[in-house]
Amino acid sequence: MGGTSSKLPKDLLSEYQELTFLTKQEILMAHKIFSELQDRENGPYSSRVSMEKVLTLPELKSNPFRKRICHVFSTSDMKDGSLSFEDFLDLLSAFSDSATLEIKSHYAFRIFDFDDDGTLDARDLEKLVNSLTGETDDTRLTAEEMRQLISNILEESDIDKDGTVNLSEFQHVISRSPDFVRSPGIHSPVRRQQHSVFRAQRQAHGTQFRAERTEKRRFGHDVPS
Amino acid sequence: VIQFMSLLSHLHTKSDEDGVHDSFSQLIQEQCHDLHDVIEMTPLDPEEESRGQILTRNRPLRQESRPSIQHFPRSARPSIRGYGVETDAAGFEEEENKRERLVNNLQNLSDSDRVRMLRAMPLSLSEKKELRMLVLNKAEHSVSQNQIPCCSQLKYYIIIALRHGWYSWLSFLSSLQLWQTALKCVGGRFGTGVLSYFIFLRTLLFFNVFMFLVTGLLLVVPQAIAHPDLDQNITVRSTWGLEVLTGAGYFSHSLLYYGYYSNKPLQTGHSCSASSNKTSSSCGLSYNMPLIYFFTIGALYRFLLMDFIFMLLDTFFGEFLWRVFSQKALKRERKPVFDIARNVLELIYGQTLAWLGVLFSPLLPAVQIIKLLFLFYMKKVSLKMNCQASGKPWRACQMTTIFITLLCFPAFLGAAVCVTYTMWTIKPSASCGPFQGLKNMFQAGKRWFQELAAANPDLHWLPSAHAYLVENPLFLFLSAGIFLIVIYFHSQVVDGQRKIIELLQEQIENEGEDKKFLITRLQHIHERKRRVTPRRVKEASEVHTHTLTHAYTYTHIHTHSHTHTHSLIYTHTHTHTLTHTHTHTHTHTHTHLHTHIHAHTHAHTHTHTHTRALTRAHTLTHSHTHSLM
């Protein structure tokens, strides 16, 4: 099936440049990749690409949050996680290097909110840690460790003590984490405790996770996990 | 502290951005049912310089807290609050009004501000497009009403064209980056420390390319194209392999070394190029038989080559064999770590050699370029095979500054001093090179001036001016003095900025402590409230009422601060106690540096006076003061 190599019109291109954090080359590259994904869809030219096709991209294939990412960025009425080209651009823009901290933390919160209720409760956090620690049994945390970790996280992040982390609490916590913020942070014991929580999370999954990060040949964008 | 901080931020958020934030946040707030969101409506700090604030010029930490986001109902994206969105007619109408206000506020901003605001909104792209279209349509309407005269229209077009050109130039520059993919891979796998080494290597490569272009175009190419005949009384050896290593033999009479370049006028007969051979004391080379022997057959080319060979051996032994050894013999789990410091020092050493040698061997930058290209790929391969990421964090930006500083101060300065000394004092050789028969290299410039004067009688003042200006030591003293004054001025500026940075860091630390204090207080309040009120049931309504009381306390704090800041302007009319409290907060935050207990008492009195002023929040402030006590 021959590819409909349609070109992106110039005014659309400049509009996308203004509204997203991507450069012109990145938008054109995204258009090329998206057209390739569309071509592989069987059926007439459709403006949406199904989630399965999107998940074949190497950047997303080994990301533990790939399904959540598709669901969060999809604007489809059928809630099937299919992405239009603009959804795809939104995805790339949110994960690009020049995206602001608010955008990243906002989308990270929605990705981590597995049950879509607007808060991260204990079940969401448990699923989050399990996604990070990996599939096999020897890298997962035991129930006791999980309970301890979640109570630590909630102690650090939950300001109003309702047992869940809402968006502003999440953003507050993220703004102190060294991985998200670029400028030097506040030296306070609370931040150090936060470090230890995050470090415990990272150490829990060990080398297996590092090996799974594929080379970002096409974009060079790190999709955070 | 909340009041003081919000007061400060409100003082300098008088820009139109505030209007956008307000209308945007209002729009979002209208669609939220959960009253939790009210606490999140803290005032926002703009990113650009704030007016009325003394120390914000170099504000390192940006406090930006956006309100929680709800989407327009037309989007099918899952919303944050799963409570659903109002779709009845009345709610829709209201939302349209809020949207209008948002569009109006967006319109009032300048272009770049608008772009920045639109980008930072976490909405879907289709909604952003709609917003942008609305804003632009409005702008077009207002513009088409005025009759633009033709000259300003032309200016408008020129500005648009220039901006397009500038953006395309920027994107071209960013796409031009060498090895961008490879650097991303290395950075992703091994961390930013190792990445800083490779970026440093690339920077050195660009330095050498620049130097090579300068010396090459001005010096090598004319000489290569039209070379005068020399007496060929030196036999050329034919063994190729040895020559590459030692740099002797064939190379000694090639473009690589100074001996090739001569002072004689070119056979083409162009007088201008003939004079250009004799001038340019900066790119010519002095030539002294023993010296040239030392430099050409001897040290610097060989040094460079040896450096390269040693780097090869080092990579091989240090990284490859060490990994094999540590895994087989020592039975360690992990591969060795890439030693950034040692590798950077080796790079700097090689670059110093190149700089020292460029005086006598103009093509040395080319050799250095080849060496750096080789080195990049070699190190990359060795890294992938042998090393693993470092366990310790490495602060990459500061390290890059340190590398460049190390490069500049001992290396470049030393090389420059050596070269200048050589050019000044060493007597050039009489037999070859462009400075034959001169006392030192600078004489070439003097001779050029003399010849110019001889050729053109109008310029008779030139050699005397040259004698007064360049040769007179007073001129040199004066220029050195001016240079030193400029350096002193810059060092004072740096000093002042360092002091400001210290002050700001202190301020940040204090604000952090205050935040910590406030958060623990809030947590205690919540703990107490939860213990008092009945246990949480899974009923949504129950949760709702519970949080209602909560939110009420929060609204209290919020409106408290809000009215406080607003009423700063019309406080005088309201109550005198309010102005009182304003000064209270001032001293409050100053003394909070000392002790927290002090702050307690201050806050206590503060709310106390406030109960006198505000009648509405009477009962609530009571509980407020209670908790603070």
TrEMBL record, chain A:
GO molecular function per UniProt: calcium ion binding; magnesium ion binding
Organism: Cyprinus carpio
Matches recorded under PROSITE patterns: EF_HAND_1, EF_HAND_2
Keyword Magnesium: yes
Phylogenetic placement of the source organism: Eukaryota, Metazoa, Chordata, Craniata, Vertebrata
Top-level lineage group: Eukaryota
Domain spans labelled EF-hand: 100-135, 145-180
Keyword Zinc-finger: no
SUPFAM superfamilies noted in UniProt: EF-hand
Biased amino acid composition, Basic and acidic residues: 210-225
UniProt keyword terms in alphabetical order: Calcium, Magnesium, Metal-binding, Repeat
Stated name of the protein: EF-hand domain-containing protein
Region (Disordered): 201-225
Annotated transmembrane regions: none
TrEMBL record, chain B:
MF terms in GO: mechanosensitive monoatomic ion channel activity
Keyword flag Metal-binding: no
Superkingdom of this protein's organism: Eukaryota
Chain ranges of the TMC domain: 300-396
Keyword Transmembrane helix attached: yes
Any one Gene Ontology cellular component term annotated for this protein: plasma membrane
Keywords from the named record: Membrane, Transmembrane, Transmembrane helix
The protein's name in its UniProt record: Transmembrane channel-like protein
Organism of derivation: Cyprinus carpio carpio
